[in-house]
Amino acid sequence: MKIDIQRIARLMSWLADTHIHELEWGDDRTSLRLRRDPGQSLRQAPEPDRSAGPPARAADPEAQAIERIHVTASAVGRFLDRAPLQSQALVTPGSRVEPGDLVGLLQAGPILLPLRAEVAGIVAGHAVQAGEAVEYRQVIMSLEAVAAFAEGEEP
After folding, report:
1. Residue 23: helix, strand or coil by DSSP?
2. pLDDT in tens, 68-124
3. Where is this region: Disordered (predicted)?
4. The CATH number, out of the four listed (2.40.10.10, 1.10.287.110, 2.40.50.100, 3.10.450.350), of the domain defined by the range 60-145
5. What pTM was estimated for this model as a whole?
6. d(CA 26, CA 136)
């Protein structure tokens, strides 16, 4: 049986939108098991109501500006912190990233999937080690996103 990565990705997406916690399928030569933590909510939070105006500011503007964002696995695979032929990690804790920057790779069989920063910020740390197997939507690293930087200013 030929394994279709796109079909597996669609199954994972479908599973995330159901109340099913485990799906197993197989034949004589191949089996596939997809699991998710029963306590984990995989749906995204609804967008805040912006019609009421901007939210009130906290007394400390620095506390208001920093938000922790998680980079998660888009498939089951193995986390790589560097390209296969490179000796340096793509990012390390403390690295500054911009939206779309490559922060890691996910090896799913022979395919390398990019892990990209969704926001500008600072790499806070890795939740998994390079080479470690990861589950679908498992947190790989955290970014400290800053709502707005002054021109040329570090967070």
Report:
1. strand
2. 899 999 999 999 999 988 899 999 999 999 999 999 999 988 889 999 999 999 999
3. 38-61
4. 2.40.50.100
5. 0.55
6. 19
